Each structure stands twice: as structure tokens, then as C-alpha cells.
Amino acid sequence: MGNIYLMTTIVDRKIVKKYLDLYHEHSLHVMFLTLGYGTASNEILDYLGLDSIEKAVIYSVVEENTWTTIKNQLQKKLRIDAPGGGIAYTIPLSSIGGKKTLQFLLENPNFEKKEESTLKNTTHDLIVVIAEQGYTNLIMDAAREAGAYGGTVVHAKGTGMEAADIFMGISLSEEKEIVYIVAKTEEKNAIMKSIMTKAGHDSKAKSVCFSLPVTDTAGLRLLED
User: Fold this and answer.
1) Shared domain check, 61 and 74
2) Residues 181, 191: contact at Cβ < 8 Å?
3) HSE (side-chain half, CA atoms, 13 Å) at 30
4) What is the CATH number of the domain that holds 70?
5) How many domains does the chain have?
6) Nearest CA to 224 among 195, 178, 187?
7) Domain hosting residue 179, numbered range
8) What are phi and psi of 67, to 5 degrees?
9) Do 37 and 81 lie in a common domain?
10) Is 120 buried (19+), middle (13-18) or exposed (0-12) by CB count in 10 A?
11) Rounded Cα–Cα distance for residues 193 and 162 (Å)
12) pLDDT digits (tens, 9 = 90+) for 1-51
């Protein structure tokens, strides 16, 4: 039994390979890579020793012990704390869309997650759905049937997709869409179940999903009223 986290790494595109290589060294193969842009001013970029605002964003699900090891390597081997290094952080997952999804994301058939985690006084969760490209409508139709309002789509590239053959018995392409849906905590499980039933492993979307606790929101009150 253990805790699991979504690890997010944000680094300059020019050095992203160093981070990917490090993660592969520690058997972290299932990752999702997308592009981003920093918003810092030129003065701040100069201060931090950065010459570009174009970023690579890496998402991966990690066990608690794995994060402890990787954090140590990021600091000592890649000097992530130095100017221009980057940033990595973890967020606890509150739930996972099925055992096969858990095994696929961690590449560990024996891992058992602790009881569903919650934060005190939270009313919303962020549902993250990772699917084959072109099936956003299928995912959102399933989510709306269970009470979701809407979502945001990000295009990404997946790595370690061969692990899906082992743990899920399916073949996945590298091109992905990540759908973010903010939902009421009491409606989260129903939305995730609907997505996995209608757009899950056995559908063309081949979705995997998990949720993250949200500590606060703004902009949802009118929709909920």
C-alpha cells in the first residue's frame, strides 16, 4: 500500500532530454510530454540565467519512494535548483480510473493504492483524462451525462506506450489528448465511471483517467447555481 502522485516537470526545451534520460534510468517510462511557454519578463529571465521562454512539460505518475529518489537525483545530478534548471513538483492523486489504469501508469502489477485520499474542506476535484487523439467529444459526452460542465484539451506526446500491451492488453499511439475537467467532489466518481464505461480501455478513445484534489476555485459559482 502506498501514496501516488502526479509529478510535473517544467524545463527549457533545450535540456528536456537530460530529464527524460534520468527518468528512464529510474524505470519511469510512461510519461506525457507537451509544450508550454513561460511568462516571465526579460528581466527575470536574465536574473535566472534563462535565454528562452519555450518550455517542455512532462507529466508522470510516481510512487512516493520513487519521487524521493528522483528528487535527490534532480538536485544532485541535474542541479535543478540552479538558475535555468527548471522545476518539478508532485500533487497527490485522489483516485484512479480502475486497476488496469493504475498498473499502466506505474508499470507495477503489484502496487496497491491506499484508500482514496482527500484534503479537508475541498469541494472540487480535477479529473485528468488521457486518451487517443480525436475522441474529445466522446469523452465529454460521457462526462456531461454524469454532471460535468466542460473541459480543456491539451495535445501531448506519450512515451512508454509499450507498457499498455503488458498491463492493459491494448496498443496505444504516441499522440495523445489530455482533457482537464473540474468537477464537484461528490460527482467526481460518477463522472470518472461514465468516462471509463463509454470511453475507456475497450473504446476507440482508450482513455485512462485519475483525479487530483482542488483546494479552491473561482468562476464556477454561476454554473453551479
Assistant:
1) yes
2) yes
3) 22
4) 3.30.70.120
5) 2
6) 187
7) 95-224
8) -60, -40
9) yes
10) exposed
11) 25
12) 468 889 999 888 888 999 999 999 998 988 999 988 765 556 655 665 555
